[in-house]
Design goal:
The chain is of the alpha+beta class and 340 residues long. The chain contains 14 helices and ten strands. It folds into two domains: 134 residues; 172 residues, no CATH class. The strands form four sheets. It has a three-stranded antiparallel sheet.
Length: 340
């Protein structure tokens, strides 16, 4: 039994990330609507007319179409035709008109749906019939005012890039196999001509699944600006590769986001092996990826096993093979309340 990402008492951040990371998608419109809301930042109680959100919503899809022509798994309609036309003629009025008429047909109804029902916290109320727009809720204002808000746009973009990469390579999002370039901090794959294709920042791709927290101490992470405090860390140190155990320590399964203090501060982990408690946390985090039908799913399965049990056994086996000081695993000196 795996730990669910969205708990019985989820925060607004959990519900937002559930929508972005766990909602099933046949088109990229959910990502575009999330991007538009984060960019516009409407306030609680505000009515956002469709014609006001349409330009931002549609331009984000038009931008993605330039590099990734496939943004839907079904037949392309008038809306995507209009987005492609905008990339040529830059006629925003025409794009807005078509978007209001055709662009929101399914995405608004499906936005809050994860698995078989809606998330607990909704970010808008559908008032298209009465007011031709969306009424923003208190929950969205709380989201925007939260310490996590600075990371959300990058998380949406990372998920979008992974999904559209699979679509444009002509494979299921569940079957996209990716690799990690530690020096560049990029997740990459290979196209049908065996050419390398950089997909997205590893920090942005991993952050949501750690709920924006340091893997070790649960401090809040910031992906951008002067407050950036996040590093990609090898849970089992990359220095172990000299043992020639045939283990890919640079695999996605072994990568976590850490604050600088935990990674290489005076009391940090450095090249030490974490405790068994933290190993169990790694298993939980990896199962978050698997359960979301994330495009990293297939990569994790290839690296660690087909079932929850086999993946847990794989981590346990690695731990036993490299841990030369049983019972002495590293843990952070101080820790915030557990996030997962």
């Amino acid at each position: 039994m795996t730990t669910p990402f969205i708990t019985a008492d989820p925060s607004v951040e959990d519900c937002w990330r559930g929508v972005v990371l766990y909602g099933r998608n046949t088109a990229s419109y959910k990502f575009a609507l999330a991007t538009a809301l984060l960019e516009i930042k409407p306030q609680s109680g505000q009515l956002v007319k469709l014609e006001d959100i349409a330009p931002t919503f549609a331009k984000s899809i038009a931008k993605h179409l330039i590099e990734s022509p496939k943004q839907i798994t079904t037949k392309q309609g008038k809306f995507l035709d209009a987005c492609q036309a905008f990339n040529l003629d830059r006629d925003l009025d025409a794009l807005t008109k078509v978007t209001v008429a055709h662009g929101f047909a399914n995405v608004i109804d499906a936005f809050h749906v994860v698995a078989t029902g809606d998330v607990l916290h909704r970010f808008f109320i559908d008032e298209r019939r009465s007011n031709n727009g969306l009424r923003i809720t208190d929950e969205f204002s709380k989201l925007i005012d939260s310490v996590q808000s600075c990371n959300l746009e990058q998380e949406v973009e990372a998920r979008w890039r992974l999904v559209e990469t699979a679509w444009n390579l002509g494979i299921s999002t569940n079957l996209l196999s990716v690799q990690h370039d530690h020096e560049l901090g990029e997740i990459f794959t290979f196209d049908n001509s065996k050419r390398r294709k950089n997909v997205t920042s590893s920090r942005a791709a991993l952050n949501g699944y750690q709920k924006g927290k340091c893997f070790y101490c649960f401090a809040d992470l910031s992906l951008l600006g002067e407050d950036m405090n996040v590093e990609v860390d090898h849970f089992f140190p990359d220095t172990l590769k000299h043992m020639n155990l045939g283990i890919n320590f640079n695999g996605i399964w072994n990568l976590v986001l850490s604050c600088v203090a935990c990674n290489r501060g005076p009391r940090g982990k450095h090249a030490r092996i974490p405790s068994i408690k933290l190993l169990e946390r790694l298993h939980t985090r990896n199962e978050f990826f698997i359960g979301s039908h994330h495009p990293l799913r297939e990569t994790l399965i290839q690296q660690t096993g087909m079932t929850t049990e086999s993946r847990g056994a794989y981590l346990g086996d690695v731990f036993r093979r490299v841990n030369l000081s049983a019972g002495q695993g590293w843990e952070p000196q101080d820790s915030m309340p557990a996030a997962f």
